């Protein structure tokens, strides 16, 4: 294996572990009542197990491989003699966030059509009990198509450096978790 591919895979696992850690933190400290309510429902225990399994498969299998491939083929590797460009990094991170948003929006709208709803149906099982872990509780097809493919396309279009890629991934992942943490909706009122 090429050392840069190995480094990309390692970094992909690090990103996955950060995502899973934040998910667990939000689940434990901001959504424990919602999780308890879910577990008390008829299908709750099996649904929650499926949710956790999807988080592990998506974040620890698909995510790191996608990250490694994107960094290997599309991430800009600057010449050490040319220095780091904050402006280039910022604009490519912003471009990646916008490209991902457009790609995700398109994929999500496609999965609400009858022909593709099967790939998105699992995520809607959490409509009544929205937990942070439901953010990544999606089918493998949805995770690859709506979550990962827009990152790969964004990397191909924007050629971000690795800092820009990590920044964009963090912005998107954290926001995905926050919008799946309804308990935090009261914060603006309390501030």
UniProtKB/TrEMBL annotation:
<protein>
    <recommendedName>
        <fullName>Fatty acid hydroxylase domain-containing protein</fullName>
    </recommendedName>
</protein>
<feature type="transmembrane region" description="Helical">
    <location>
        <begin position="87"/>
        <end position="107"/>
    </location>
</feature>
<keyword id="KW-0472">Membrane</keyword>
<feature type="transmembrane region" description="Helical">
    <location>
        <begin position="56"/>
        <end position="75"/>
    </location>
</feature>
<keyword id="KW-0812">Transmembrane</keyword>
<feature type="transmembrane region" description="Helical">
    <location>
        <begin position="12"/>
        <end position="35"/>
    </location>
</feature>
<keyword id="KW-1133">Transmembrane helix</keyword>
